[in-house]
Amino acid sequence: MMSVLASTEPVRIVRHPDGVVELRLDDPGRGNALDLRTAEALRDTAVEVAADPGGAVLLRSTGGSFCVGGDLRAFAGLGAGTGAYVHAVASAAHAAIQALYELPVPLVTAVRGAAAGGGIGLAVVGDIVLAGRSARFRLAYTAIGLTPDCGASWFLPRLLGPRRAADLILTNRVLTGDDAERWSLVSRSVDDGELDGAARRIAADLAAGAGDALRASKGLLRVGAGEELRRHLAEEARLIAALADGRQAQDRMASFLASGSRPKADDGRAGARKAESVS
């Protein structure tokens, strides 16, 4: 039997008897969008998982989207308080990213549907990242006058190289799951119906593997990078908050909301009507 050791909505921890610890984004009606409540729940559950990570960690979502990014409806109408709110959201999400990056055990991520804005940083923090073929990756911060957060501007140049990272960040192009595999943004793409099963099997195999060797190998891959990521996340939070207080970003966010442009959360159903993303 699996046991739910933390039921904090909209993020949950599920511990499986085979040693896999699952961190589940569980607010499908909003496309798992990041407002302050969700970001703080993500931070708290990530820290809890880091304290007792089992043999492997699986990060996945319920619903049709992985994470549509920041909830612009939560940002709207705050006026001079926008920057402070955005900084609080980013800081909480960044604490989660840091905790997940520094996990001593392998982290497997399963991405379905929309991974937008901060959802991209959350997706690619994994050691092994699987994406459904229908997944859609899009940064789109600059479209609303903001800069990347959740480590996107740190991870992408390292994963893709500087040219492709600049292309994604500056032009806001969309990558499918197959595109993301070709670009090395994810480890592999799989048929949508196989995503959860494939990710679960990989995590279980890792949890059953040579734990000491896996931990030591992951340590070699991460050596010296954790503090660099920490400093970069702080700068991302500072910049996005400063821009969020500016007239250009506030006008662009208001225009985005008024236009009805939305990420296709949950395949265009209820989540797309309720959640507005920074992407």
UniProtKB/TrEMBL annotation:
<feature type="region of interest" description="Disordered">
    <location>
        <begin position="254"/>
        <end position="279"/>
    </location>
</feature>
<dbReference type="Pfam" id="PF00378">
    <property type="entry name" value="ECH_1"/>
</dbReference>
<dbReference type="InterPro" id="IPR001753">
    <property type="entry name" value="Enoyl-CoA_hydra/iso"/>
</dbReference>
<dbReference type="InterPro" id="IPR029045">
    <property type="entry name" value="ClpP/crotonase-like_dom_sf"/>
</dbReference>
<protein>
    <submittedName>
        <fullName>Enoyl-CoA hydratase/isomerase family protein</fullName>
    </submittedName>
</protein>
<feature type="compositionally biased region" description="Basic and acidic residues">
    <location>
        <begin position="263"/>
        <end position="279"/>
    </location>
</feature>
